[in-house]
Amino acid sequence: MSDNLPQCPQCAGQYTYEMNGLMVCPECGHEWMPGGGGEASVAGAGERVIKDAVGNVLADGDTVTVIKALKVKGSASGIKAGTKVRNIRLVDGVDGHDIDCRIEGFGAMQLKSSVVKKA
Fold it and tell me: Which intervals hold domain Protein YjdM C-terminal (predicted)?
């Protein structure tokens, strides 16, 4: 990798890269503005911006699709890739779980925006 790219401020990973004006860490999935020193999910006016796995901005009430199979604690089968989740709500979640939703067959749960794609 290039020596002029900064390390990840969250995990100190060295394999960062630039994507759509943001710096991205492939090790932990953290995104931030280069040179800004701030979190990518905080806009200049204090408004949170949460993006899906491909960079689309998410909003309350959106429908998203799970892009990879997810294991669910206490369930024999997990959530399959391609599962549609309707009417999401964006929250300040714990450990990167910033989407609050209800998935049919599983109930209420929180998802990370990095594992969904806007439908």
Answer: 50-119
